Amino acid sequence: MATGQLHIDLDAIAANWAALDAMTAVETAAVVKADGYGLGVGPVARRLAQAGARRFFVAIAEEGVALREALGPGPEINVFSGHMEGDSGLIHEAGLIPMLNSPEQAARHRAALPDAPYGVQLDSGMNRLGMEPADWAATRGTLEAGPLTLVMSHLASADDPSSAQNADQLRVFREMTGGTTALRSLAATGGVLLGPDYHFDLCRPGIGLYGGAPFTDATPVTRLSLPVIQTRHLRPGEAVGYSATWRADAAARIATLAAGYADGILRAISGRAQVFAGDIACPLAGRVSMDLIGADITHLAICPDHLDLICPAQGIDDLARAAGSIGYEILTALGARYTRHYTGAAP
Ligand SMILES: *Cc1c(COP(=O)(O)O)cnc(C)c1O
Fold first, then answer.
1. Pick from 157, 186, 210: which residue ends a domain?
2. Model confidence pLDDT, tens digit, residues 323-338
3. Which residue's C-alpha comes closest to atom 6 of ligand 1?
4. pTM value?
5. Which pLDDT tens digit goes with each residue over 288-298?
6. Is 31 in the pocket of ligand 1 (CB under 6 A)?
7. Is 33 a catalytic residue?
8. Could you count the other beta carbons within 10 Å of the beta carbon of residue 211?
9. Which CATH number fits the domain that encloses residue 334?
10. How many domains does the structure of the chain reveal?
11. Which of 12, 50, 100, 264 could cross-link 105 (Cys pair, CB 3.0–4.6 Å)?
12. What pLDDT is stored for residue 347 in this prediction?
């Protein structure tokens, strides 16, 4: 079998949710967009519901439908992209709550599903999604007269506590939402860590649940083991892989591993990351190719069956640093070819 083995510790996800929940005095939801940050929305969300999460967030209505199938009736499912054309049937049938992002979306929602609950997303300075202050001022009265559940906004720089943008967005969010009777939410993982001023009624962490920065105290969630397909001995001067970017300066032993950029192992880590035999590091040798990676195992006494790319010694943020990326991208890039093993699945 030449598939990488991706181990996902659902108990660790539940522990991370509980740890983030314990940092605030308010409710903690869970963001499970993009298939639970690439780890499998069904098992992830069921385990989080078992841990106590009652509100979930996804990016698009189709994800909400899949999540409803996984969770059954009960938990609240909120959709960041709001109410797009063609979403009405999905929102109605799966009982989703769209975060309305514009007066147009508000009008669409009112016309299609006049009694169905909704939230509103406000733009407090990120300029990505949500109603601008003027849109909100113009529609607020009508929106607050209906079944408005939640008013939220998103911080652009919460991973950097020293950024002045945090306090700016906090001030704008307070100004825009003063006097509302709906629940208020501003904080994702970074906002939880910024402290109680940012918590309002509801926090909605994503990446911290999955073991990523800025929640540096998170319990690691993933381990990725790659099978060794073949090993070979190189003479000094021989090269490995496309364009011969790695060359042996002495006699070397190279292991060829069964995974590549088609599995989400970013090509940018070529020559910049390692694989691990237990806690012994083996540098990558040559370019990551589509289905294969080379590693220098000259210093290992025996050649193992597997080498780990993601493990305690090299977490998702270490890999991200090697690739010039972020843990979010490492996780959501994890490929479909891996065999996935879950521990701690909810019944
Ligand atoms: C993705 C997302 C979150 C979760 O953010 P993390 O940094 O992963 O905790 C929260 N709110 C919005 C609007 C998002 O897009």
1. 210
2. 999 999 999 999 999 9
3. 206
4. 0.98
5. 999 999 999 99
6. yes
7. yes
8. 26
9. 2.40.37.10
10. 2
11. 100
12. 84
